[in-house]
Each structure stands twice: as C-alpha cells, then as structure tokens.
Inverse folding.
C-alpha cells in the first residue's frame, strides 16, 4: 500500500469555475426543468447545451488546446461535475466527455481524434460509447455482442449493445465490437439506417440509457484492432472519477436540504434537528461526503499527472462517493419524513440517481476488487521473486 | 510553499546539522517503510500503551536523554519562539526535520506527547513567568505534563465536575478525584480543572490550575482497563496546595481553557499522533496478515480488506485536503472533529475485520507471530470512541457548530 503524497493545491480558478457552474445551475437547471426533461425523455434543448459546451466550455475542459479544448486538469472537470451533480439536469455532458472524448483521446488514433474531438469539445455533436452486454457490466475477457466485418475499405457492424448512455440521442456512437483481431473500437456517425435505438425504461429518468441494435451498419475502426480492452479500462477509470464527483454533488444537495428542513420542522415542540438521532445522521452524511470529496480530488489529480496510483484511487473515489450518495439520499428521505416519500418532493429523484450511478462505471464490488488486487496481487508477484525464507515465520 | 521551507532549513545549514546530529546518535532505520512479516514487535498494533513499569522507566530515561540532546543541539523545537528555546522557524521546517528523523531509529517521544498541547495553553493563559519556566522544559524533556480533567462523575460532561479548589490567602487548596489520566504516573505537572465558585454550577464556576504532580497530597494509582493493562490512572488530590500564580487563566475561565486544550488535542489525535493514526501502518500489516493466513484469494476477504484500506486512504486524503486548505489560508474548523470520528470509525472497521480474519487465533494464542497480538487492538478499540470527547459529543459539536443545526435543549446553568 502506497502512502499518498500527492500535493493538493487549490488554484483559485477551481473556485471560479465552481461559481460559474453554480450560476448556470441556478438559472437553467431548476427542479421544474429537470422534471420536464426526465418525464418526457426529450434531450436537453440545444440552447442550454450550447451554454454548457460553448460559453462554459465544459465539454472541452480536459481536451488539449490544439483540439479546441481548454487543456485543463481533471480537477476542473470534477469540480464542474460536482456542482452540476447538485441538480439532476439531464445533459449529454457525462457521455460526451467521459465516454466519447475519453475513448478518442485514449485510442491512439490521431486521425479519428483530429476529425471528431474538436466537434465534441465544442458541443457541435454529442457522443457516447457502447461497451456492455445485457448485464450492464464491462468484462474485458468477454466477447462483445457486436460483430464487425470488413467491407471494402470500411466495416459493417451487426449485433447489440445495452445500457448505452444517451444511446438514443448521441450523434456519434462509439462501440466496442468483436473482430478477428479481438475487441476493437468503432465509430458510427450521422443518421444510420440499420441502427435501431431503443430507449430502455430507467429507474433514474434523468439519465437515459438505450439498447442499440446494429443491422449491417457502416462504421470506421478507431485505433489499433484488438486494443479495445485497455482503452475501455482507461476510459472507465476516468469516467468513474467524474461520476464520483457528480455523486458528491448530489449527496451534498441531499445533506443541505436535510439540514435546512431539520432546522425548521418541529415535532413534539422542538426542531427535529435538535434531536441527536437526526443530528447525528446529518453528521454521518457530512463525514462521508467530505471523505468522498477528498478522495475524488486526489483521484482527479492522479488522472491529471497520469500517476501509477490512478486506478486504485479512482476505485476508492467511486466507491466512497457511491456510499456517501447512497446514505445521503436515503437519510434525506428519512429526515423529510412522509413528505420525502412523495412523488412531488425531489428527494426520490436523488435516491434514483444514487441507486443507478452506484452501478454505473463499475459497482462497489468491482472497485473493491480493483483495490484488493492493487494490494494483494501486485505485491504477491514481486514477493515471488524475492521470496522470504520460511524461517522468518515465527511458530 | 514547500520549496521555501526547505530553503529555510538548508540556508541555515540546519539540514546538515540535523543529519549529522541524527547520524551521530542513531543508526538508520532498517525497516523504514516496509513491514517484514515475522520481524520486529508484533504488538505494535496496540491502540493503548501497556508498558511494564520497569521497562517504561528505562525507556523514559533513554527518550529523555535523546530529547535533551536534541533540544541542546537546537533541533528540539524548530517552529517554537526563540524566547522560549525554539528556533523560530516555520511549521514546515519542523515537518521536514520530523521526516528526516523518521529515517532513523530514534527513541519514541510518546512520553512527551502533551508538549504541543500544553504549550499554546500556557503561553496564552498562564502567568508569563510560569509559562517561561515550563514551556522550555516540555520541549527539553525536563517536564512531562498530563491533563486532570475527567472525573468518575464527569467525563464528556466536564461542566458537572466536583473537584474543589478553595482559596486560602494566596494559595488554593484542591480536593477531589480525577480519572482516565494518561501519563500521570510519570508526569511532573498536571493541568487540573477545578470548581472554584461553589455557588455557581456548571461551566461558569470552573478554573484551571497547573498542579505539581510531585507534591504531597497527589496520589496516582494505575487503573486497570479492558485490555488487561494499564495506560491510565486515577489521581487523588487531597489538600493539594497550589499557589495562585499557578492559576491558568482567570477565575471562572477554566471551561474555556479545557475546551481549547481538548481542541488542540483532537487535532493532534486526528493527524496521527495516536498509534492508529490514519491507519496506513496497520493497513500494511493487514495486507501482510491476509497473505500470511493464505486468504489472499478469498473473495470475501479481498472485498473487506479493500473496504478497510479505502477507509484508511480516505482519512489520509481528508488530512491532505485539510492541510492544503490551511496552507491556502482557509481554516476548516470541522477538520479535527472529522479526523477524530474518522479515526474512531476506521478503527472499528479494522477491528471487526481482523476479528473475523483471525477467529480462533484471536481467541487463543497459538504462538504465531502477528496474530494473537491483535487482541490489544481489538480490546483497545472501544476506548477510542470515548477519549477526547465521546463520538456522540463530537457528533453534537459538528452538528451544531459546523452544520448549524439547532442545539440540544440544555438545563440552565
């Protein structure tokens, strides 16, 4: 186990970005807007998306300047995601940045990158990545259910991917497909006859998922054939940190509203927040949120500098943030009492987001396993080479 | 910031002076950073000290000799004010020296752990002459301090304590009983919280004093605790005479003095002065334990090990963020309180894990290194939830002071 010695710095630009995103959220991401979008499953209007992508520059925040982005560290995108996580505005940001841009930046394909990333970074097109089977999990050892076959200079895709974020609306669909060389990444762009997009019914209506059926759909290969697994792994590591940041924001919202309510609602002649049973619940929420937030910032700074610790750090951030959001969203309902259990109250929207994001980009069990492997497996291998004599063991 | 401080240390030739001081006296630590299973003290996991009195006395002598030499070499208190024997450098210089020192096998300075807790209190509240006499001694190892706060009838509710101090001329006569006093059996001075205004109940009638622990009327009895050992004492104060010059703060200001002391102490515990710290050392030990038990491929053990280590790492991250915010000029008031709860929670998590992991080996000693020794961790763990303000009291403080929740209704005082 490594002792973490990353330098935490707090550039004032981080706080500035947070303020700007908070102002956007207050103006454009109110509960009414969120509910309308969630209940009608219409995508975010293009004007609001333009504000996010063009005026705030969120889509291209971590994209290098030569590709039209701001070239900022992951801490910045994490702060933006955290702030946006306080509201549940359905937007193409997560899929476009974490999945589409993330994949193109890591697939080692300069021409695809130069062709597609600037448009994504500017918000002119949105994107996503299809990489999971029906169970919603990623397993590099498993053969994708989409098959790519050569067709002259290009490729044709046949098969199905499930649980594709924004799969029904994304302009650019990246997909992991099986080839003779192994799992590879392909890009399907524009209106595509033969691609059937079926929105899935989702527990969290603020984040859409779709099943995509490919019937002889033209596509281009991205990166080296057979190299999808390490690309997807790297993408999911980054996506997990960004999602964890969003979860911290969601949890913070739940805590803030619970504290406010507990300070004003009276029962048996006093504010319920004066009872230790309620007060201590709020403090436990707060402690988990602060821990998760610190872990997210550490993981984000690891991503920025490409630290060897990035993978376990991402897993820790995602697990802690999932737990914090899980607790905060459930306890917020409890503290709000009966009213918190009604459809009219927003508490259930956060509860839904907490449950669905817990499973997204690796559930806690998988991330626990990543951390366990970093502790036990790596060292086991090095131990094997310098095996300690048995006599060291005191009987 | 970090760079600047390193320059301070090296510009003065301090870094070289520090290294030559250390190299002259101590050998480089062989085990630094790496745990070798089966080597060293497997009892190092204990949460509370439980020393054999003779061994402890010998260790204290060694620790004191080293501490005096370090102080006399100008390295004992780098970030302390010059007029009190410090070197007048920054806190970062002190950290830098501590990092250098950690590379050597130096005697534990745990005997003197209240130096940084009592010093700011003395400098702020004590008669300047009294402060001058003691502060230097705290850092040179001439004076060891303890806290005489808790009583059998007043733990977290210090406002209800009953030890009395009555003024007789310019001397106070102290009578009462204190309990849970760490270090009292070798301490030279004790910061005692007493009731001075008999007609005023609650916190307003309290005053703090610096008590000479070597004088007649002070009787220290070791208190045997859950772990079977003794790291705390009962202290009986019978007609103990304390000159008014040893009053710490004004009459009736004792509550504030005690709260400030506890605040500093919690910060110290949280940043890892306590044996468990953020748990990094114990994390390594748990990994080694899992492997030595042949459980490294057990999926449930892997999940739970990850859970414990994640909690340790989270505590570490929280600490780093806190210090970054401090350096940036922010003062996160919640952080010592959060650190205390984090430590309590993490030790509980680790204790449950190690209990399940060891099973029969924890119930009976098989003689195997690094197994039964964990009993001192598991048995000591409940104490961490009580010390320096119970977890419940800390929850109340965070809820009210940080989150701004309404106060628990309190009886009039």
């Amino acid at each position: 186990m490594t002792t973490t010695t990353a330098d935490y710095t707090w550039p004032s630009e981080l706080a500035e970005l947070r303020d700007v995103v908070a102002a956007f959220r207050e103006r454009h991401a109110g509960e009414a807007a969120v509910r309308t979008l969630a209940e009608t499953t219409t995508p975010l209007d293009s004007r609001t998306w333009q504000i996010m992508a063009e005026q705030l520059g969120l889509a291209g925040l971590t994209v290098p300047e030569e590709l039209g982005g701001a070239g900022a560290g992951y801490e910045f995108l994490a702060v933006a995601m955290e702030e946006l996580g306080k509201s549940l505005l359905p937007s193409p940001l997560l899929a476009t940045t974490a999945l589409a841009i993330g994949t193109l930046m890591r697939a080692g394909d300069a021409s695809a990158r130069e062709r597609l990333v600037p448009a994504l970074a500017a918000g002119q097109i949105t994107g996503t990545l299809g990489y999971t089977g029906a169970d919603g999990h990623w397993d590099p050892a498993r053969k994708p259910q989409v098959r790519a076959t050569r067709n002259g200079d290009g490729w044709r895709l046949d098969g199905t991917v499930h649980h594709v974020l924004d799969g029904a609306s994304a302009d650019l669909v990246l997909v992991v497909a099986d080839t003779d060389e192994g799992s590879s990444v392909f890009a399907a762009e524009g209106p595509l006859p033969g691609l059937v997009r079926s929105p899935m019914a989702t527990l969290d209506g603020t984040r859409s998922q779709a099943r995509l059926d490919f019937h002889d759909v033209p596509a281009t290969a991205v990166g080296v054939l057979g190299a999808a697994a390490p690309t997807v792994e790297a993408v999911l590591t980054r996506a997990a940190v960004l999602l964890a940041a969003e979860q911290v924001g969601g949890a913070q919202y739940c805590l803030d509203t619970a504290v406010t309510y507990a300070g004003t609602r009276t029962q048996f002649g006093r504010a319920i927040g004066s009872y230790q049973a309620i007060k201590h619940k709020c403090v436990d929420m707060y402690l988990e949120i602060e821990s998760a937030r610190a872990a997210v910032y550490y993981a984000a700074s690891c991503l920025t500098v490409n630290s060897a610790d990035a993978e376990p750090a991402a897993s820790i951030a995602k697990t802690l943030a999932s737990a914090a959001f899980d607790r905060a969203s459930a306890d917020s309902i409890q503290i709000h009492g009966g009213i918190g259990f009604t459809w009219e109250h927003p508490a259930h929207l956060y509860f839904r987001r907490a449950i669905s994001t817990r499973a997204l980009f690796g559930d806690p069990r998988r991330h626990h396993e990543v951390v366990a492997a970093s502790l036990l497996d790596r060292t086991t291998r090095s131990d094997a080479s310098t095996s300690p004599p048995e006599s060291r063991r005191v009987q | 910031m970090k760079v600047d401080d390193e320059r301070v240390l090296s510009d003065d030739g301090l870094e070289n002076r520090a290294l030559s001081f250390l190299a002259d006296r101590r050998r480089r630590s062989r085990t630094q950073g790496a745990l070798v299973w089966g080597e060293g003290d497997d009892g190092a996991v204990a949460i509370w000290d439980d020393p054999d009195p003779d061994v402890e006395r010998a260790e204290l002598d060694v620790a004191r000799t080293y501490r005096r030499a370090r102080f006399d070499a100008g390295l004992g208190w780098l970030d302390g004010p010059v007029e009190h024997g410090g070197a007048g450098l920054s806190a970062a210089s002190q950290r830098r020296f501590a990092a250098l020192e950690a590379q050597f096998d130096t005697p534990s300075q745990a005997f003197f752990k209240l130096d940084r807790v009592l010093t700011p209190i003395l400098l702020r509240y004590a008669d300047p002459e009294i402060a001058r006499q003691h502060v230097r001694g705290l850092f040179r190892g001439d004076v060891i301090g303890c806290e005489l706060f808790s009583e059998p009838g007043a733990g977290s509710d210090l406002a209800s304590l009953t030890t009395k101090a009555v003024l007789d001329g310019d001397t106070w006569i102290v009578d009462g009983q204190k309990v849970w006093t760490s270090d009292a059996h070798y301490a030279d001075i004790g910061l005692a919280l007493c009731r001075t205004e008999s007609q005023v109940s609650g916190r307003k009638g309290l005053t703090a004093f610096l008590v000479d622990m070597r004088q007649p009327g002070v009787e220290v009895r070791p208190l045997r605790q859950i772990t079977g050992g003794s790291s705390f004492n009962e202290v009986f104060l019978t007609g103990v005479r304390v000159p008014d010059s040893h009053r710490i703060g004004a009459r009736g200001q004792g509550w504030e003095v005690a709260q400030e002391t506890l605040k500093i102490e919690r910060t110290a515990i949280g940043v890892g002065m306590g044996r468990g710290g953020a748990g990094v050392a114990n994390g390594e030990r748990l990994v080694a334990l899992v492997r030595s038990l042949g459980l490294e491929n057990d999926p449930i053990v892997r999940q739970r090990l990850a859970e414990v280590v994640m909690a340790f790492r989270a505590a570490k991250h929280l600490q780093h963020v806190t210090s970054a915010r401090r350096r940036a000029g922010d003062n996160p008031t919640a952080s010592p309180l959060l650190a205390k709860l984090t430590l309590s929670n993490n030790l509980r998590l680790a204790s449950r894990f190690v209990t399940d992991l060891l099973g029969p080996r924890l119930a009976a000693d098989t003689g195997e290194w690094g197994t039964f020794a964990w009993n001192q961790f598991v048995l000591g763990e409940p104490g961490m939830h009580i010390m320096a303000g119970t977890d419940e009291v800390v929850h109340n403080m965070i809820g009210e002071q940080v989150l701004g929740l309404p106060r628990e209704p309190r009886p009039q005082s």
